[in-house]
Amino acid sequence: MKPLLVLLAGAALAAGPSASAWAQPGVSGDGATSAPARADTLPAPPPPEVALRPSVASRVRAVILTVANGEKAEPPTRSAFLNCSPVGGSHPSAEKACAWLNRAGVDPGALRRVNAAEPCTMIYAPVTVTASGIWDGKYFQFGRTFGNDCELKSAAGALFDF
Fold it and tell me: Tell me, what's the pLDDT at 111?
């Protein structure tokens, strides 16, 4: 969970100055000091160039993926970080995984068997996957247990293939 907190903090820092940073007494947006604000006045709104700038956080697409053997998500046997804006991270097939997430729209319901032509054995060896992160500025989290690794690969393709 610690990497997710770092991810969230990084997204907030990347978004730039907030209105509260501009409303501090004695601080102006250009780094120069100004006269202290009176206690009976409301804070000044951010300058127009800050207020109209689209939030960087609204374009964040970063996901932490885990795979665990068994019916529980803890402890994960492997994990990967996936950044989709821009594409990168520790995931070995980041472009394919991001393409899958773009098509699925980060919908856990999209993790269903997509390749019915590929036969999977009926051996029960459960695999639990989780995905949590930020997609277009909104936090999401989901998890699912598959009957075996073959079912996981059939449903999620390259997403959990790391």
Answer: 74
DSSP reduced 3-state for 118: coil
Q: Does the global pTM surpass 0.90?
A: no
**Element at 104 (helix H, strand E):** helix 94-104
Q: Specify whether the CB–CB gap between 73 and 54 falls below 8 A.
A: no
Residue 92 is classified by DSSP as T
Give the per-residue SS3 of 18-35: CHHHHCCCCCCCCCCCCC
Tokens standing for 67?
Answer: 């795979």
The residue type at 131: A
Sign of CA dihedral 83, 89, 92, 95: positive
Looking at mean pLDDT, say which of 16-25, 106-115, 139-148 comes out highest. Answer: 139-148
